[in-house]
Amino acid sequence: MSHTINAVLLTLLFILAPFKALAFQDTYIIGAGDKIQISVYGEEELSIEELYINNSGKFEYPYLGELVAINKTPEQLKNEITNGLRGDYLISPKVRVSITEFRSIYVNGEVKKPGGYEYQPGLTVDKAIALAGGFTDRAARSKISISQAGSESKNRVKLSSKVLPGDIIVIEQSFF
């Protein structure tokens, strides 16, 4: 009986996981270092398989010229492209904008493998530390801070705190 319940729960997790990622994409703000995909149904020449967003956030799009992706959600960018193509170019364009790769997070200080790691939705500080090989013997496990991308300030955080793309996590050294 318990095997059946476990199988049902696992099936539900696999079914619901894509919805969590989709919900995340509705609120996610595109930033420098992200890679996006733009698909226009039935219009291969208007689709872009992979587009790296640089620091300017600008890119050239067919017929519409220069567009800015940075500081917009995928939904906002999709609406901008849809509205730009509607009328003169297409009657009813079906556009999809999705994140294919998130910008990196960085884990520095007293971890075994400091460096940049690909962000994943749902990432927490403890998971990021695990990606970086775990704490060193000299790590101050209660002195962990995060600086948000583009911000000078550091905020003390707990191991369960959420991590956002572009965050820099610093684990300080203990004195004992």
3D architecture notes:
The strands form three sheets. The chain has a five-stranded mixed beta sheet with strand order 7-6-10-8-9, with helices on one face. Strands 2-1-5 form a three-stranded antiparallel beta sheet. It has a two-stranded antiparallel sheet with strand order 3-4. The model is unreliable at 17-21 (pLDDT under 50). It contains three helices and ten strands, in the order H-E-E-E-E-H-E-E-E-H-E-E-E. Helix content is 26%, strand content 30%. With 176 residues, the protein is an alpha+beta fold. The protein has two domains: 34-101, wza like fold, CATH 3.30.1950; 105-173, Outer membrane lipoprotein wza domain like (Outer membrane lipoprotein wza fold like), CATH 3.10.560.10. A hairpin with a 5-residue loop joins strand 6 and strand 7 (115-118). Residues 105-149 form the Soluble ligand binding domain. Keywords: Signal.
For the report, how would you describe the main beta sheet?
5 strands, mixed
Tally of discrete structural domains: 2
Distance between the termini: 51 Å
Estimate the global geometry from the Cα principal axes.
elongated
- Annotation field: number of helices: 3
CATH class of the largest domain: Alpha Beta
Structural class, by secondary structure, is alpha+beta
CATH fold name of the largest domain: Outer membrane lipoprotein wza fold like
Q: CATH superfamily assignment of the largest domain? A: Outer membrane lipoprotein wza domain like
Any idea what the CATH architecture of the largest domain is?
Answer: Roll
Helix content: 25-40%
Strand content: 25-35%
Protein name: Capsular biosynthesis protein
Pfam families: Poly_export, SLBB
Domain Soluble ligand binding: 105-149
InterPro entries: Poly_export, Poly_export_N, Soluble_ligand-bd
